[in-house]
Backbone:
């Protein structure tokens, strides 16, 4: 068991290079949210030569579509969504300096190659632990695409947001290693 | 003939939606807490303890346990001696969903499949209606997240493939989904019928309490074998590797055509939100 590593975006090449698959991390500072529809719009902006609504250099994108906040809440429940649906968009964003994404489930070989190429990482949060994770979110503000509702892009301020490194920048893959270790027979 | 007002169905459905989102059933809690004791992977244990802590926070704070508060899926059993006054069952259920998802600050996760425009009120629900003897109405709801539903599969197998072919298909479906459906999962399997009947049976199987055993001795044995084989895959909690990939395998069957062997696998995440009411 490794010690918990603290991360504060924006991340440097040194920060991401030091992470290994299986490391537990606690993130404090800013995270940006985006899921299916927001990614589609971000890529359309890039295709038409326009600027993104936030500077993604060194940042982390959290794949989440929260529930609406109740009166007095910063945000509703906010656990990770399945990352694989964003696989077709992610390499383009890593090429522009995005340092990592947070979601659940496995990534495509293209994304994993892009992580190595760009010295970036893929982190997982515990899917379904949405009420627990929401406690680490101290501030939430919609910064783009309000019409998308839960899919709008939000700027979150988090404290000790818990995640696990799944794919590091050196080819390490927690899913492959973990399943291999606990698999009981060839099937 | 007993008269039930459509408004009463709407009220019951609203309450079912609210309870499903925030309060995990005792069957699922018991299975997850049991898994926390037996899981061999330290990271898997860590994930399970976060899952247990999460549903406690959700229940105490009357907050959705998962941000994906799901597509609302219903099985409604209508007594043949019941007359519904003031509208159709379908409209009454959809109105209950509309109110529950709005009043509970639940996420509206339903959209047009082509334009992807959100319908704004989490309707329409998926409603399976059947008639039964008697003068009662039974409404069962599952608030089903998209991540696990997306990992489901159906196969029109050849009868000669038999149980080994069925097992291969089920295990392949689960192995390839890895961490995507938020394991530990519950596996619903529908065997037989036709193309859509097998899928509906696999969904219906998920409405059984986790830990329940099929009344059919042969299916009960197959459930036990498959649960062991699924857990031997090593996928583990959230796919990080471990000995708890599933907390239940439920199987339902129906006679089928002599040429056919349909098998459907419906995957349910650990936030297994199912509730029911009879009145």
Residues:
């Amino acid at each position: 068991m490794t010690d918990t590593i603290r991360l504060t975006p924006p991340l440097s090449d040194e920060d991401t290079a030091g992470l290994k698959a299986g490391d537990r991390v606690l993130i404090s500072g800013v995270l940006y949210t985006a899921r299916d529809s927001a990614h589609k719009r971000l890529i359309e902006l890039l295709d038409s030569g326009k600027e993104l609504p936030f500077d993604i250099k060194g940042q982390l994108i959290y794949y989440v579509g929260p529930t609406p906040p109740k009166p007095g809440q910063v945000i509703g429940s906010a656990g990770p969504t399945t990352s694989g649906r964003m696989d077709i968009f992610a390499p383009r964003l890593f090429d522009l300096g995005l340092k990592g994404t947070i979601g659940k489930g496995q990534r495509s070989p293209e994304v994993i190659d892009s992580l190595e190429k760009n010295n970036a990482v893929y982190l997982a949060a515990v899917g379904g632990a949405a009420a627990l994770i929401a406690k680490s979110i101290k501030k939430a503000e919609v910064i783009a695409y309000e019409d998308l509702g839960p899919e709008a892009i939000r700027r979150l301020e988090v404290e000790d947001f818990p995640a696990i490194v799944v794919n590091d920048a050196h080819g390490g893959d927690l899913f492959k290693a973990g399943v291999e270790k606990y698999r009981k027979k060839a099937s | 003939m007993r008269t039930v007002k459509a408004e009463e169905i709407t009220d019951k459905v609203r309450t079912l939606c609210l309870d499903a989102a925030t309060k995990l059933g005792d069957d699922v809690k018991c299975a997850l807490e049991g898994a926390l004791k037996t899981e061999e992977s330290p990271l898997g244990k860590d994930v399970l303890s976060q899952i247990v802590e999460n549903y406690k926070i959700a229940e105490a704070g009357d907050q959705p346990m998962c941000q994906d508060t799901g597509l609302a899926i219903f099985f409604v059993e209508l007594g043949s001696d019941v007359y519904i006054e003031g509208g159709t069952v379908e409209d009454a259920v959809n109105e209950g969903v509309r109110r529950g998802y709005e009043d509970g600050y639940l996420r509206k996760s339903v959209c047009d499949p082509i334009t992807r425009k959100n319908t704004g009120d989490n309707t329409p629900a998926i409603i399976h209606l059947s008639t039964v003897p008697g003068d009662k109405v039974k409404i069962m709801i599952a608030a089903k997240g998209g991540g696990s539903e997306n990992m489901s599969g159906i196969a029109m197998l050849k009868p000669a493939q038999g149980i080994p072919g069925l097992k291969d298909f089920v295990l392949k479906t689960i192995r390839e989904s890895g961490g995507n459906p938020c394991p530990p999962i519950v596996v619903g399997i529908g065997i037989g019928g036709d193309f859509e009947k097998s899928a509906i049976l696999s969904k219906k199987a998920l409405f059984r309490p986790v830990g329940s055993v099929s009344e059919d001795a042969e299916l009960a044995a197959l459930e036990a074998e498959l649960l062991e084989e699924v857990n031997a895959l090593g996928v583990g909690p959230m796919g990080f590797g471990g000995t708890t990939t599933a907390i239940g395998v439920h199987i339902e069957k129906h006679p089928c055509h002599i040429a056919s062997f349909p098998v459907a696998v419906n995957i349910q995440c650990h936030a297994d939100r199912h509730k029911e009411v009879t009145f």
